[in-house]
């Protein structure tokens, strides 16, 4: 069994516990809370324009002087900018959900996603302790520029070969995310459906295959999960859903309630959220999309409209909300400090 020293040293933190980034649902309060507690708070920047990145980092820094991480989605090349006809057709499908909730159907946005190069520039200017990325291996130029700014780079793997590719690409640590994890399956070498390895098998194999520290993610919600991850040779853990359930998170009451109520078998893998495979709660929309014939067009990322409907629609009917499959009744704490203390109990060498 390894300890968490390398992860603590890498990020300058006290405990090898990482708050998961939540693209579209991160909260300054929760990120700062986990960093203040001695872990690494992360903030998901999916869809954030550079000005919003700078503003968010100012808010995190106003709340804590401690290290934190920022998270970006790398482009995969399947992103498309729908034009009016496609947009109208897509909106026609979801319009009833907007109407039901009294929310305006959004107009075609000027652009769907910010430019990744502009986002990276903003992250470098912000100088977080770490930049974590999903959906690929960062380019050598990106790694070099980020390292030159004194920022650590963390990649995310769903399979052993993805972890090996990330290490070859120069990352400082690899998040090994098991099939239990909530949110998108961030696979990039094989189809996401063919990369659903559970954490129990994934973590030790990744630890054997790479020399950089492995941070285990997916279904970890209490000291037993943390202890198991370390027993499998992880050197840190990344925890999402258990923190998403707390008062400090940006999840609304219906979402938090759904997290606590959903049994371990209660989530689905669906493409209804964005076109890419993700784990979330079943809703009327995901059920409908499972029945609908698949088309290449469904690989569209929805960007801001999905985010705009997520909060009011969390109870039912709208896009599925992301929660972990495996944690079921383990997500009960409502204070970030309570979750953190519990997780700390599983870190080797900490009493
Ligand atoms: C609402 C939501 C949004 C997420 N967005 C991101 C993201 O933008 N980037 C990322 O690296 N991981 C994202 N994740 C995955 C988490 O970082 C983490 O790996 C996962 O939540 C771990 O599984 P757990 O929820 O079982 O703890 C997201 C998870 C959730 C629940």
TrEMBL record:
Regions crossing the membrane: none
Start-end of Basic residues biased regions: 287-302
Low complexity biased stretches: 303-320
Region (Disordered): 278-320
An MF annotation (GO) of this entry: monooxygenase activity
Keywords: Detoxification, Flavoprotein, FMN, Monooxygenase, Oxidoreductase
Top-level taxon: Bacteria
Cofactor: FMN
Catalytic activity: 3 propionate 3-nitronate + 3 O2 + H2O = 3 3-oxopropanoate + 2 nitrate + nitrite + H2O2 + 3 H(+)
InterPro entries in the cross-refs: Aldolase_TIM, NMO
Family in the record: Belongs to the nitronate monooxygenase family. NMO class I subfamily.
Protein name: Propionate 3-nitronate monooxygenase
Natural source organism: Pseudolysinimonas kribbensis
Record lineage: Bacteria, Bacillati, Actinomycetota, Actinomycetes, Micrococcales
